[in-house]
Amino acid sequence: MRIFMTWMILAILAQSHAAEQMIDPTQPPAAVLPYLPDVQAESAQAWQVTAIQDNGKSGFAVVNGQLVQLGEAYQGFRLISVKHQQATLINKNGEKKVLGVGLASFVVPAQPPAQVKKTKQAKTIKK
Asked: 48, 83, 92, 115 — which has fewest CB within 10 A?
């Protein structure tokens, strides 16, 4: 009986060790992991607007529990617009965050500056 129990314990230990070595089939291949976005970091950085007040030229939004007046900065973004239940924030690079009350927020990536073509000026003729 003792030998049987010893073999059972060894079999259970071997199975638990084999289970630790198994690969999760739902995970992406290891080769592509560096290229995938960090979902945990993005979810931790998600901004939530709980209240918006538009008073014409003034207004505010409550972003992650902090009151942000129109024109004030919050985490490197300046509140530039409060209307239609949406708060629009922009950073120095031109990246916009549009946050809605109860709606999914979205980010508008910064646009590269437009290239201005120089035109030749017409020569003036002196008389």
From this structure: 115
Over the range 4-16, which residues count as b (16 or more CB within 10 Å of their CB) and which as e? eeeeeeeeeeeee
Give, for 9, the enclosing helix (H) or strand (E): helix 2-21
Yes or no: say if 68 and 79 are a contact pair by the CB < 8 Å rule: yes
Maximal C-alpha separation, the chain: 122
* Cα–Cα dist 68/47, whole Å: 13
Give the pLDDT confidence score for residue 104 in this predicted structure.
55
Q: What is the pLDDT of residues 31-83, one digit of tens each?
A: 877 777 665 555 456 788 888 998 877 899 999 889 999 999 999 999 999 98
- The set of residues, in sequence order, having a beta carbon less than 8 Å from that of 90 and lying 6+ positions away, is 77, 78, 80, 96, 97
Spatial CB neighbours of 51, under 8 Å, sequence gap ≥ 6:
61, 62, 101
